Amino acid sequence: MSYPIRRADVADAPALQVLFSCPSVVRNSLQLPYPSLSHWQTRLAELPDSTHALVACDAEDRAIAYGALMRPPQLRRAHTASLALAVHEDWQGKGVGRQLLGALLEYADSWLGLTRLELHVYADNERAIALYRQLGFEEEGRLRADSFRDGEFVDGLLMARLRGPLAGRS
């Protein structure tokens, strides 16, 4: 199945508040539970030009997944971006995340000319890690006791995808 993908807009705030309230999304992201609508309205209204946020939508044009490429302010890192991805738990396992991640990679490669994409993922998020590996991301490091989640410290992984002249570097 194909899902419409478009740039995120302030009008998506209610759907993103719901998406980021899903227990599985809270568990596997760095977000805190109980996000407010005003948080998402402000966040979307004040996205810097260096952040490229996309959503995948259902048939009613409601955002069911959110993804972003966030470019750093340092000019010496202009070839890089950090990647974030979240899928509403009712839509997980249906190809939405893969399709949105594919759109983000195409945007990074063909429109922004990025050669390094990096992300943070919890070490126990096996489905996400498998997807990232399938799309060319490699583990670069483990962050021990990186985040506090559900009353305990958990490890994170740093993963990156290099392309162009950087691909194949070890």
From TrEMBL:
Key words of the record: Acyltransferase, Transferase
Signal peptide: none
Record carries keyword DNA-binding: no
Domain N-acetyltransferase as annotated: residue spans: 3-164
GO molecular function: acyltransferase activity, transferring groups other than amino-acyl groups
Pfam family, one: Acetyltransf_1
SUPFAM superfamilies named among the record's database cross-references: Acyl-CoA N-acyltransferases (Nat)
Protein origin, superkingdom: Bacteria
Protein name (Swiss-Prot/TrEMBL): Putative acetyltransferase
Source organism per UniProt: Pseudogulbenkiania subflava DSM 22618
